[in-house]
Amino acid sequence: MKQFRFFSYIRIGEYMKIEIADKKNIFIFINSGYLNDTDLASKEDIIFAVKDFIIKYKKRLNLRGFYKVKVFVNKKVGLFLDINRLEDIELSNTVDLRVIVYMDEKIYFETENYYILPDRVDKYYYNNRFYCDASLVPNILNIVEFGSFIYGDMVLDILDNATVV
Q1: 155 FRET partner, CA 20 to 30 A, in 4, 50, 79, 80?
Q2: Which residues of the chain have pLDDT under 50?
Q3: Which of 55, 81, 102 is the last residue of a domain?
Q4: Do residue 56 and residue 81 come from a single domain?
């Protein structure tokens, strides 16, 4: 699984961060505050919101072609989009999306700074970094620039090998 690192990113308002890794890979974090009208318990609502978002920003993101969009959902934190271009359609400005939604994926926040993590939450230490469940951080936008989000196999690796501090 990929890791969201926002060292160079586009910030759209207070609720979104976009990292364009290369011509074929884009990572987007959409804070749940932006998704007030979306039922994060409904895959259909999530798919509609993601498609609407991508179409709205397709020019700004320079999108055209066929894309696979993996959506990782955490109801308290928001959506994490992993957009991979599968095929480029050179003579067209159309965007075709295959959206896959992963519900209630464990999302952890990773940082080098122990002191920015909230008190009274389990913190883990592994490979010179600190981790905590991102859904337990009251205002994640205040610290997002000081770390990254991880999910999937990386979270399992941390939980198996880290020390609780």
Answers
A1: 50
A2: 1-2, 4-9
A3: 102
A4: yes
As beta bridge partners, residue 66 has: 87, 96
Q: Please state the domain count of the chain.
A: 2
pTM, 2 dp? 0.79
Residue 86: Cβ within 10 Å count: 11
Read off φ and ψ for residue 112, nearest 5 degrees: -90, -15
The gap between the terminal CA atoms of the chain, to the nearest Å, is 25
Provide the pairing of β-strand 107-111 with 4-5: unpaired
Euclidean distance between CA atoms 124 and 98, whole angstroms? 35
Q: Clarify whether residues 12 and 88 are in a common domain.
A: yes
Partners of 69 in the beta sheet?
83, 99
Question: In the chain, which ranges are E strands?
Answer: 4-5, 10-12, 16-22, 25-31, 65-74, 78-87, 95-102, 107-111, 124-126, 129-133, 147-151, 163-164
Average pLDDT of the residues of the chain: 85
**What order do you get walking across the sheet with 147-151 strand by strand?**
4-5, 147-151, 107-111, 129-133, 124-126, 163-164
**Tokens standing for 135?**
């859904």
Quick check: helix, strand or coil at residue 152?
A: coil
The dihedral formed by the CA atoms of 97, 141, 3 and 56, expressed in degrees to the nearest 10: 10
